[in-house]
């Protein structure tokens, strides 16, 4: 199925001149008037956790921020003291990614960096996982991310610059028991990042995959089970935000937080049987 003429933010109708789409009204601004000559970052999942920490880190360097999430009040807390514009959106809704992209591009005219941080989890035996929860996890963690990238990417290619940052997980590298669907979604994002990176070679647009271990955020409580593994300690969201910032600044394709997470990923590729035994022991 071709995507040409799909109705995305940068697909004009056949035979018609390209024009700026009609987008939802942007959210409220915070702080002094915007300076549109600054670089623009669109951060999803910005109402809490890694997304909020990432937004604050970019704000420290003077970026103009577009912050998205489902909770306007929390978004405004993240935006407090900055020039950020809040763009509440439900990315799991059928038109959520398209409407967010239209609103973002309508607000600033461009997106230099997209940090796709929205996501949910579910913990428990796969055989007991409700079908509706399978769909919910895949819809937000995978499908919505791909659709949002698809909507924003043409403007970056046209500008000859930009970067897409995807929030992966150690669960997507090695597979975590009782997190089968979440692991599958994050593994798919990792493969997507590799394929898209090769496809975009020479366009000036980069793709970064940030592979993080367990992070101390409300994510675990919201998935229905608090984090209870003692062998792998949680890291603060600010540490992941700093890694995202450095990856964008240094044009890095993949980063691990903490850095030692690269070891089990490489072990899985080099010695899958040994990797499997270790995973069975340590979870």
UniProtKB/TrEMBL annotation:
This is Short-subunit dehydrogenase. Residues 39-218 form the Ketoreductase domain. Keywords: Oxidoreductase. Residues 1-26 have a biased composition (Low complexity). Pfam families: adh_short (PF00106). InterPro entries: KR_dom, NAD(P)-bd_dom_sf, Sc_DH/Rdtase_CS, SDR_fam. Residues 27-36 have a biased composition (Basic and acidic residues).
